[in-house]
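Appendix B, Record 12. Input sequence as logged:
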Amino acid sequence: MSRPTTPGPGAGPGATPAVHLRGLRRTFGTRHVLDGVDLDIARGEFVALLGASGTGKTTLLRILGGLDRADAGTVLVPPVRTVVFQEPRLVPSQRVLANVTLGLPRGAASRETGVRALAEVGLDRHADAWPATLSGGEAQRVALARALVREPQLLLLDEPFAALDALTRLRMQDLVGELVRKHRPAVLLVTHDVEEAIRLADRVAVLRDGALVTDETVEVARPRDSADPAFAALRRRLLADLGVTLPEPAGV
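Logged structural output:
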């Protein structure tokens, strides 16, 4: 069953969490997709959410982002929230910089802010490019710049690397980790990838049957290496919580 969580590494003593969920419920027809979820995320804390397809991960993210509603429970979130989806969702008729500053007041200040955001993701020279000329990784970096240019207090990542090739995916993971440490929003990453969750997050939660069955601090030294025994042990525990049992390592 889910349990209340406490603010993690991003919070000082007695800090108010950026995200506070208690008894969150969401039902579609007769199906309880979320059934009493409790979760806190502190400012500056990175939480990864794992779960099989259809377990409610994206529904939870959409509720936090204001794209869906809860049927019951307490949902406290900060006012400035942004979402990066699996697809970049760029406006094809707008150049890269216009996509980054979409919704911001027009003028030189917003343009300068947008160029700085593009520089952070290594794409300032592409400000006047059209989205159709970008690679998949470049397009996703533009989406990340668009999310961060607003200095969100809560950054929501819905499997943002799933459509990328393996090498680009690793580079994007490094970039996201670097930018999150710089901007320090609260972060919720929805992912199917256990290694990705361990590599990036301060805490990893597992959602199953509508409830959080695991909420574990990642006590693995950075930079994180999958060959590290602590990394491997946590991966085995999380896979077991997901219902995947691996053979015992040789010599055990």
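The helical segments are 57-64, 96-100, 108-120, 136-148, 166-183, 194-200, 229-241.
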